[in-house]
Amino acid sequence: MQELLIATHNPGKLREFAAMFDGLGLALRTLDDLGISEDVEETGATFEENARLKAEGYLALSGMPTLADDSGLEVAALHGAPGVYSARYGGVKGVAQLQYLLDQMQDVPWHQRLARFVCVIALARPGQPTQIVQGTLSGVIELAPRGSGGFGYDPLFYVLDYDQTLAELPIETKNQISHRAEAARAARAILEQGW
Ligand code: ITT
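# inosine 5'-triphosphate complex -> structure
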């Protein structure tokens, strides 16, 4: 069975990729499975640069075909922030990060709270050019968090078509409509072609 390293430390992402690559006949490996404790630094200025850095960096460390993604939230009223800094926005994590985002948007009215999630996936394997695909999901930043599903900014991300936040939607629904789902479908098509 072909192995694919999913190079993330984020268990939420790993769960989503495992669901989306179900039935492909791939043995998914994690950094923990391979005992890789080194971190590939995300020093790029764009999601694409970071996804490429991670996929190629962990390929070099593992010797195994590697998928890495870089993703994040872009808020129009904040000129695209937190963007590539989404994981460390405000220097805080978890619930405190949601509050930090709300504080930054305190005076922004509902109709100007447009945002999007972006996900760029890089697939790297020995001797081949790295493949890059991406996906996006549009929404609105809520006035207060709602829901307990998903991870990260999901409780603040309101999806108009469903009249719910991403954290209120069943994970199956999130996995159909998310930025990561759109990018993963494109990655899946590459994997199915025998990449
Ligand atoms: P790895 O680098 O180990 O994959 P990470 O969590 O640091 O894990 P990123 O660098 O891609 O991942 O940062 C993405 C951040 O953007 C993530 O920590 C969340 O805060 C946010 N984010 C990305 N996708 C999201 C989603 O589907 N729902 C909610 N927040 C998301």
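# post-check
The CA atoms of residues 38 and 61 lie 9 Å apart.
The pocket of inosine 5'-triphosphate is lined by residues 8-10, 13, 42, 70-73, 86-87, 117, 150-154, 178, 180 (CB under 6 Å).
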